[in-house]
User: What shape does this take?
Amino acid sequence: MELFNAIKERRAVKHYDKESPVSETDFKQIMSAVLLSPTSYNIQHWRFVRVTDPLLRDQIQEAAWGQTQITEAAELIILCADTQAWSDNPQRYWANTPEDVQAMMLPMLESFYNGKEQLQRDEAMRSCGMAAQTLMLSAKALGYDTCPMIGFDNEQVAKIIKLPEHHVISMIVTLGRAAKSANKRAGQLPLEEVLKENSF
Ligand SMILES: Cc1cc2nc3c(=O)[nH]c(=O)nc-3n(C[C@H](O)[C@H](O)[C@H](O)COP(=O)(O)O)c2cc1C
Assistant: This one.
């Protein structure tokens, strides 16, 4: 599907055909596209949990106040991030760059993130947002539907997936084939209201 059509056609789909799987080839293609999303310093601190265990899906659904898409969708991906990835062997983020570039980047990265908890968390959310949009548009391009979700008890879901220390959950994305289309768009704000020129 052409990009602008995928953007228009992507909607938050709440009801999925339980009998319609996402092929492994398509899943891999979508996730490979996700990995090409941008991150600051190419840090790639996202970590994705693909929940295939139906018992865990039930538990997550309970933590998400019963939202049906959690168990109906063929795939459920929890977008998480390692807030300490900046200090975890960072030279691998620039493995294909010359040594002098790596030597320059390392201290920059360190001084940018070290001790800045709010920034580390903000970055996690930014990067996962980028990844989520790539996931949803790639899925749409292959004829699938998605729903981004934050309607769940974060602490409970963290327990269910055994979220490690220094990791955060950004959102869940469900993926599958729609059983029911999304309702008409609820109402988009006009461009003039949200686009400012030079300053507010
Ligand atoms: C970060 C985020 C969290 C969301 N959480 C939920 C959710 O928990 N449950 C749900 O049904 N929809 C959720 N949505 C979907 C929004 O309601 C939907 O994207 C919005 O109404 C616009 O509709 P559209 O995506 O079909 O254009 C979420 C969307 C975003 C971006």
Remarks:
- The chain has one domain: 3-194.
- The beta strands are 15-16, 46-50, 75-82, 145-149, 167-176, 178-180.
- The first strand starts at residue 15 and ends at 16.
